[in-house]
Specification:
Layout (H helix, E strand, L loop, with lengths): L2 H10 L5 H20 L4 E3 L3 E8 L2 E4 L6 E4 L2 E8 L1 H7 L1 H9 L5
Antiparallel strand pairs: 1-2, 2-5, 3-4
Helix pairs in contact: 1-2, 3-4
């Protein structure tokens, strides 16, 4: 699903223009980005949570030359799906878990 598909889906839910749908989708994305930039975490019940994880500096390798390269510390966005979302994506595992079975 692309951003345009998402805008189309939002627009079709009500009496909205395409522009209204774009504004809604953009506002949601900007809100998530702004919260993560300021170090806040976003938790959407039944969907999951977004947060920032700190990556430590490390020594990497240039795959082309094999030369050692210093990779600086950085902050990366991280999404953790809720149990409800995981169960919706993997319904067979959710059924097995509710029966006490182990899936492999």
């Amino acid at each position: 699903m692309t951003k345009a598909d998402l805008v189309e889906k939002v627009t079709s839910l009500g009496d909205l223009t395409r522009r209204d749908g774009e504004v809604i989708v953009e506002t949601i994305f900007e809100s998530v980005i702004n919260a993560l930039q300021t170090g806040d975490k976003i938790e959407i019940r039944g969907f999951g949570s977004f947060r920032i994880r700190q990556r430590n500096p490390r020594i990497g390798r240039n795959p082309k030359t094999g030369e050692r390269v210093e990779v600086p510390a950085k902050r990366v966005p991280y999404f953790k799906p809720s149990k409800e979302l995981r169960d919706l994506v993997n319904p067979d595992e959710a059924k097995a878990a509710s029966k006490g079975e182990k899936t492999e």
